[in-house]
Amino acid sequence: KTLSFSLRHTEKLTENDTNAFLQSALLYTHPDGTRRVRVAHLTVKVIHDIARMYRWADVFALSAAWGRRAAARVASEPLGEVRDMLGASMVDPLVTFRCDVRFDSSTRRMIVPQTLQTLPLLTLALGRHVSVHPDRSPAEGGTITADERVAGIHQMLTQSLQRHMLSV
Length: 168
What we know:
With 168 residues, the chain is α+β, with helices and mostly antiparallel strands. It is built from six helices and two strands.
């Protein structure tokens, strides 16, 4: 199983901050019926240079997280909005990179970070996944049935990162 979550930091960090400390608690019921708490602690390095952050970005983890977020929203939001969210998820980090890191003004071309070069392709593939695709062409089998869509949503929400990379 793979667990993914979004973390948003709202406080200002100083230049002296070198580590951030994360703590999570998971409350669950053990098979013998007892309630248990599992606490995890994590220390991560703080990076003040945004270019270094992009250098270590994991495009497959981003793709899996966005796919799960999209699949979870299919039942409550129109399919068009979910697909727009997928597109915006791809564009936002690239725009941030362009504005904050690099832009070749002589050729007016955006320089895409090495780690995110396959991001547009993966996002396009996610948009064609049965869980979020509006419809197929007759050559591909025609209309996507409710059963196929639900099976696709279940697959997207429960598969490991390795399976996600193979299915997209």
